[in-house]
């Protein structure tokens, strides 16, 4: 009786292992950096950020996302002619945007909302692949 129970248990364990091995592995997005940049790529990034937070196009540095997968974008502070913020102090929090790659596709993620924006002009690679020391 013990041998039959042991064989059934072993056979069940093998079936479970084979079934779990056959399931597709879920792709996980990884932090990424751009492999190159251009005015066209920066414009695409600016447009996607504008979609996420509204307002005018943000200004991005020429090297945005070349060395880091994250950037913080602060909301513009409207000022009067003397340089004072309108309507008192500016209290809006900055927005975090993360460049990531998933199954070879470059994406921009707005961390606050979780929105993902597929990038068609930008080419990127996993940050840990480009900078393994990180």
UniProtKB/TrEMBL annotation:
> Does the entry feature the keyword Signal, yes or no?
yes
Tell me where on the tree of life, at the top rank, the source sits.
Answer: Bacteria
Q: Which UniProt keywords apply?
A: Signal
Where is the secretion signal located? Answer: 1-27
Asked whether the keyword Signal is assigned, the reply is yes
What is the protein's name according to its record? Uncharacterized protein
Q: The organism's lineage?
A: Bacteria, Pseudomonadati, Pseudomonadota, Gammaproteobacteria, Chromatiales
């Amino acid at each position: 009786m013990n041998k039959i129970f042991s064989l059934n248990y072993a056979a069940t364990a093998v079936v479970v292992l084979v079934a779990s091995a056959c399931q597709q592995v879920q792709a996980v997005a990884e932090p990424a950096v751009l492999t190159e940049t251009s005015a066209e790529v920066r414009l695409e990034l600016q447009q996607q950020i504008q979609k996420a937070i509204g307002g005018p196009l943000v200004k991005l540095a020429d090297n945005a996302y070349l060395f880091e997968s994250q950037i913080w974008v602060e909301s513009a502070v409207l000022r009067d002619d003397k340089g004072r913020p309108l309507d008192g102090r500016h209290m809006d929090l900055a927005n975090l945007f993360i460049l990531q790659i998933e199954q070879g596709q470059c994406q921009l993620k707005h961390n606050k909302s979780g929105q993902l924006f597929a990038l068609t002009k930008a080419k990127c690679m996993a940050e840990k692949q480009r900078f393994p020391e990180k």
